[in-house]
Amino acid sequence: YIFTTSLPPIAGGYQIVYQRCCRNSTIVNLANVNSTGATYLATIPDPSIATVNSNPVFNSWPPTFICLGAPFTNDHSATDPDGDSLVYELCTPYSGADPNIPMPQPPNPPPYDTVVFIPPYSLSDVMGGTPMTIDSRTGQLKATPSSIGQYVYGVRVVEYRNGVKIGVTQRDFQVNVVPCPQITVASIFSPTIVCGSLVAAFT
């Protein structure tokens, strides 16, 4: 959605919020998924912190599935039009609306609860295997999953201007870990013909 609106400056700034319920019942790392929604938000900072600001924009979307037991790398970097410093971190996604009011209008006010991980899953190990990590400077995310299933994880980018935190932009994703078959490559070895013979043996 793209639109333009004018908002008066207020102390504390604004939060732009969208909430829905519910998450897929097939997610394996969250508790009570049938009644756990999601909250997505962006911040407009207090005018005393920044009078002009644009939120960073993530450069790409992650894949919807990754391979079981295979090292996985994905770029979660963002671009900030104002040139602010960006710091990346994993985060626990927010929960949101419930089955009784699946799309509240207006959205519920903050503070927002976060989703609850089912042990042994946690923010430090969202899908088993080699724990997921993200480079705080580049936004490069890495993991090696060890179990098949659907998992939810969150990524946050924090804006700093002149060393002062001015905003947070957060997103979360559902990813499917699937068994990936071995890829068979059809090829031949073609030997170099040396002077003196036009006969070559192919393996």
What does this protein look like?
With 203 residues, the chain is mainly beta. A 4-stranded mixed sheet has the order 4-11-10-7, with no helix packed on it. Strands 5-9-8 form a 3-stranded antiparallel sheet, with no helix packed on it. The chain has no helices and 11 strands. A hairpin with a 2-residue loop joins strand 10 and strand 11 (164-178).
Percent range of helical residues: under 10%
Largest sheet geometry: 4 strands, mixed
Secondary-structure element pattern, one letter each:
EEEEEEEEEEE
Question: Biggest sheet: strands side by side, in what order?
Answer: 4-11-10-7
* Rg, Cα atoms, Å: 23 Å
Q: Strand tally, please? A: 11
Report, as a whole number of angstroms, the end-to-end distance: 58 Å
Shape from CA axes? extended
Can you count the helices? 0
The amount of beta strand, in percent, is 25-35%
Quickly give the structural class: mainly beta
Q: Please, what is the average pLDDT?
A: 91
Any low-confidence stretches, pLDDT <50, length ≥5? none
Short synopsis of the structure:
The protein is mostly beta strands.
Secondary structure layout:
Layout: E1 14-20, E2 38-44, E3 57-58, E4 65-67, E5 72-75, E6 78-79, E7 85-91, E8 130-134, E9 140-144, E10 149-161, E11 164-178
Parallel strand pairs: 4-11
Antiparallel strand pairs: 1-2, 3-6, 5-9, 7-10, 8-9, 10-11
What keywords describe this structure?
203 residues, mainly beta, three-stranded antiparallel beta sheet
